[in-house]
């Protein structure tokens, strides 16, 4: 079955294009800093140098290599994006499944918690928490973001479970004596796989942007570089007003490219899976 | 006197996998004042036939060949725009399958009627259209209150009757109905069937093409029956002839598979036809019923039978019939 | 008496702001003995499917009891007892698409019932039993095993559900509209299969249907249900010959028949 999926999916032009871009960016982030082994926070050249052979993306106001910063930034941003997505989706799926399947009081309680989490302004919460924790490494930032964003996943999963629960194949499994937990995992979750996957992707791209936002106002990672921190420094040194385009454009462009290609890949996958699931 | 005549009509669906030959060489004739029943199972092409007869043919469906004449019009040589203004609603009306679900839920019945009629009766204002609707509803014993109700407030049977009444407001000569009662319970079904027969008795319509999978309904209301299989007509005659002297093995099988609460059914037993209808993407040469037929011989695999008259007005497409 | 319902009632509360009580099943009682075939006949909204779901222990009644072999089925405490019940009382539903989880191959629907066995047979034994049951319902195992539900026809799928029952050899099968979504020409095959099941395994069958024809053809006894209540109960022949209740008479009168014409159209 996996082989069929791989062959089928690589036939879709949209998928091939966006996946290539995404894969390229991820590759840059993973392999880049190793290949281009310049330390991003060390001063290596003249300040505000334009892009050239020695400095592919020029240098910032302190003379630090921007290309190295961008490569490290990609690594961090993607890491945070996917980590937040994994944690956030996991929390959302577990809570949504329990609430949808059990119903009654359990459902009501879990939904109260979920609703509170959803109505709290995420950015504000992130800023508050971030402001209180002085040393913020990548893990903390990822967790902060995921804790504030699992709400809508839980709601969506719960709704799907509630409708799937009444399907006849669930009756058949129940009559075969399968326990609730087994039914939830074996019957219900696989049917939601494409939905959960989409949630994961959306959360990943939202998390990357959220982290960039936090970093831009100085509340992102304190150790290491992310695309947001580059923009932070660019803003601090008034790069826009002073026309230092090689400083502020690459990080933004890469962010946009990453999130867009992520979304288009996911959309193409969703399109591929939907008609198949309906058994056409 | 013939109202509708279809000659060698072929209508295919063009898909990325190839062409589905849903209607593949149909010759049909509906006389004035006649109720013709078309019976067949899922995938035999009867719904496609319905759309094709009134030339509601849009891609991926395409009319590949054939001539269709209704009254004095030759539909196959007319442009869609002309058909829309001169034929649909006024000469031929189609009540498709699940028409019940096609009613716009946010409009009252009378507004839906208004939308439908405004196109044809451009010189009448809203009030006159309303009065026309009221008069017709009264004539057909439909409560006028229905006009002021929303579709979700109506029962399935009432919705279907409202839909049929609306489709026949302009007195079309031919009414085509596709499975009008399959979602209704038995008593409501009878009321709807009565209404259709009534429409003809009152002269509001002239002829009916009734498409269904339920041959018992056709026994009750139709004058002629046509049996369809895999895009082709296999047998056609008067209702009595088909039900009492079926010739084609498929017709026989279909009739003997019907279960009704009657002693005779218990006595004769139930028969079933094993196998599946052929894939219409690449139908076999020769007789399409061959793999499932008890009379089948080698000849049938190569030679496609054509409709031949075996008795007066009784046509069968089978290689064993002369 | 193998199976009995006593004053079974199910009330649903519907509505968002103004909650209304809908009595889907109202004080239904009847019995079923070993080897009997009965039909519960009613139109949509009559409560017959709700009754079936309660008999299958998939929803709970508001009041009333159901006894199977003198045990109250809603008072079964342990998982083991429940499994034992489903081993002996099983269901087949109307929509041949629905009982199959589209993510899995159809084999799952057959193999999962081994969970209800007391003693788990070996893999080889399981394979053998599955193959035999598929043959018993007229299917070729290699055409069926390994496929997904969308690759098979409605008739094939429904037969697989009967094969599932062959694996279990239950004492009672509930068939809710088992043939209404199948083409007429293949219907008889599935119906005959039920009769065969009854003959071979001495299984009792309860048909839940709106089709009086199906009920008359297959059953010893027919129960007519309307708006949650049983309005008439008699042998199949009696219902046909001497219907008592006006609703029954109306049903018989309105069914389109093959061998006689309506006089009042």
What labels would you give this structure?
heterotrimer, A: 280 residues, mainly alpha, MetI-like fold, C: 265 residues, alpha/beta, Rossmann fold, 6-stranded mixed sheet, 4-stranded antiparallel sheet, 10 helices, 36% helix
Task: Provide an overview of this structure.
The complex is a heterotrimer of chains A (280), B (322) and C (265). Chain A is mostly helical and 280 residues long. Chain A has a single domain, classed as MetI-like fold. Chain A is built from eleven helices and no strands. In chain A, helix 2 (13-35) crosses helix 11 (245-277), helix 3 (66-102) packs antiparallel against helix 4 (104-119) and helix 3 (66-102) crosses helix 10. With 322 residues, chain B is α/β, with parallel strands linked by helices. Chain B has eleven helices and twelve strands. Chain B has helices spanning 46-53, 80-86, 109-118, 126-139, 156-167, 186-201, 215-221, 239-244, 249-256, 263-268, 298-302, and strands at residues 2-15, 18-31, 35-39, 61-70, 73-74, 92-95, 174-178, 207-212, 224-229, 232-238, 308-311, 314-316. Chain B has an eight-stranded mixed beta sheet, with helices on both faces. In chain B, strands 2-1-4-5 form a four-stranded antiparallel beta sheet. Chain B is globular, with a radius of gyration of 20 Å. By secondary structure, chain C is α/β, with parallel strands linked by helices. Chain C is globular, with a radius of gyration of 19 Å. Chain C starts with a strand and ends in an 11-residue tail after the last helix. The B-C interface holds B 41-42, 185-187, 189-190, 193-194, 197, 213-217, 219-221, 243, 250, 253-266, 270-274, 276 and C 43-44, 153, 183-189, 191-192, 210-217, 240, 250-252, 254-262, 265.
Can you give me a brief rundown of this structure?
Chain B is of the alpha/beta class and 322 residues long.
Overall 3D shape of chain C: globular
Radius of gyration of chain C: 19 Å
The whole-angstrom Rg of chain B is 20 Å
Instruction: Tell me roughly what share of residues is in helical segments of chain C.
Output: 25-40%
Number of domains of chain B: 1
Form type of chain B: globular
Q: Which regions of chain C have little confidence, pLDDT < 50, spanning 5+ residues? A: none
How much strand of chain B? 15-25%
| SS-based class of chain B | alpha/beta
CATH class of chain C: Alpha Beta
| Helix share bin of chain B | 25-40%
Q: CATH top level of chain B?
A: Alpha Beta
Count the helices of chain B. How many? 11
